[in-house]
Amino acid sequence: MSDRETRHAELAERFLPDALIERIRARAADTDRENTFFTADLDELRAQGYLTVFVPEEFGGPGLSLHEVSRLQQRLAGAAPGTALATNMHLMCTGVARAMRERGDRSLDRVFAEAMAGEIFAFGISEPGNDFVLSDSTTAAVPQSDGGYRLTGTKIFTSLSPVWTRLLTHGVDASDPASPQLVYGFLTRGTPGITISDQWDVLGMRASQSRATRLDDVALAAERVVRRLPVGPDPDLLTFAIAANFQLLIGSVYAGLARRALDVAAAGLRSRRSAKAGAALAEVPESRVRLADALYELLPVTAMLDATTRDFDELVNHGSGWSVRLVGARLHATAAARRAAEVALLCAGGAGYNAGHEASRLFRDAAAGMFHPPAADAARPLFAAALLDTENDRGDDRGDERGDERSAVTRSASGTQR
Ligand SMILES: Cc1cc2nc3c(=O)[nH]c(=O)nc-3n(C[C@H](O)[C@H](O)[C@H](O)COP(=O)(O)OP(=O)(O)OC[C@H]3O[C@@H](n4cnc5c(N)ncnc54)[C@H](O)[C@@H]3O)c2cc1C
Fold first, then answer.
1. Which of 6, 63, 238, 361 is packed most tightly, with the most Cβ within 10 A?
2. Using a CB cutoff of 8 Å and minimum separation of 24, what contacts does 36-43 make?
3. Ligand 1 near 89 CB (within 6 A)
4. How far, in Å, is the centroid of ligand 1 from the Cα of 25?
5. In angstroms, rounded to a whole number, what is the distance separating the alpha carbons of residues 321 and 24?
């Protein structure tokens, strides 16, 4: 085992030991069936220090890299995809603060102390009909004389709804119609005007309890505002860090789901017999080929996640090439998860079609991967533009390389060119 793989194994043992993974896996069927939040998982993950993995050592955390957290998230998703997907949102917010600090911007450093103090961060960005995602918002941000804002709008699919204490969100300050500004900041739970929907009855990822959040004239304190950016794609480190952490950690969850699906598939083939063949299905060539192809398809996905997370950690400058890498890694992972989950279902046979069977749950959980932005259709223009359009066509600033890198990724997060 290489040094790096040894460290991954040590981190797995420290933060997600086998016994914990098995307990989380055992609870996943219950949270799915009962449509409840993963309270017991979260308590154990918190006790294990998992919610502080990104916090740098100087703030008292273990200071793991995105590459290391990606591997851990793959492991957690293999036990309970809904738990991993929702935990991802907290990890992502802390990972964004970490990425910004590593690039010389300390404006989100308070996130570390708050994560160490037990605050739970959620990501309140998605809004109905806003396919610009990060580069625009349907939420109004009305400026106040003290430098704060009052936010009114609807955020959908806010994972961790039952427990978050800090919500990273955005809105538009249109007080100067000639220059509308996107305002990013952290809301505090309990602030008057925040209402969490009680509607949540979805196909998969049910434990994430990603309910809608209604904001009615909610105070965003001046010291909680982290960015004011022009509406539209902008070469800013915050949106680059969000896009990178979001795409790669979401991809990690679905890659972990896919890997687990192959184990469930293999178990199905070992346990079922073919009367015609007079042997276990694990010995039947067609079944072996199906499983072999599924593993063959998954290998480039995990390799791409490894390579891209390491490039991000090592501050590699891919310039405008970041967009296709980040979005490509996540799209490949979500597609692989759906294919692997289908193979698991086929290999588990009719028994796998029972709603409580792990193959059935993985199949439903994998379907959620179609909805994370940008979806495949929205991402195609990005890939076409990478080959066909000039930087000017794409609306990039011709500034320093970092500026190109950030503006390209802002578009990648929105999946749309303005
Ligand atoms: C399992 C899962 C977890 C996610 N977690 C997050 C997250 O933590 N943070 C985040 O920013 N994005 C999250 N997303 C959102 C996701 O990334 C997409 O942005 C979103 O699914 C796109 O939805 P849409 O525009 O197709 O939704 P739409 O079809 O427009 O709406 C989807 C759902 O949102 C609710 N909704 C829509 N309009 C309203 C309204 N006016 N009032 C109340 N409820 C309404 C309804 O339940 C509706 O079914 C998550 C998605 C999934 C599938």
1. 361
2. 36/207, 36/209, 37/161, 37/162, 37/163, 37/207, 37/209, 38/80, 38/82, 38/83, 38/86, 38/207, 38/208, 39/162, 39/163, 41/80, 41/83, 41/207, 42/83, 42/87, 42/163
3. yes
4. 26
5. 38
Cβ of residue 368 lying under 6 Å from some atom of ligand 1: yes
Which residues of the chain are modeled with pLDDT < 50?
395-408, 410-418
156 within ligand 1 shell (Cβ under 6 A):
yes
Structure tokens at 401: 């390389």
**C-alpha–C-alpha distance, residues 157 and 87, integer Å:** 14
Q: By the 8 A CB rule, do 180 and 172 touch?
A: yes
Give me ligand 1 centre to Cα 185, in Å.
20
Tokens 């918002």 map to which residue?
Answer: 137
Q: Single out the residue of 169, 43, 191, 57 nearest to residue 112, CA to CA.
A: 57
Atom of ligand 1 nearest to the CA of 159: 8
Compute the distance from residue 156 Cα to the ligand 1 centre, in Å: 4
Domains and CATH numbers, the chain: 3-116 (1.10.540.10), 121-230 (2.40.110.10), 237-414 (1.20.140.10)
Given CA atoms 372, 378, 382, 384 in this order, what sign does their dihedral have? positive
CA atoms within 13 A on the CB side of 190: 4
Ligand 1 midpoint to CA 210 (Å)? 8
Q: pLDDT, tens digit, for every residue of 174-226?
A: 999 999 999 999 999 999 999 999 999 999 999 999 999 999 999 999 999 99
Indicate whether residue 86 lines ligand 1 (CB < 6 A): no
Cβ of 203 closer than 6 Å to ligand 1, yes or no, is no
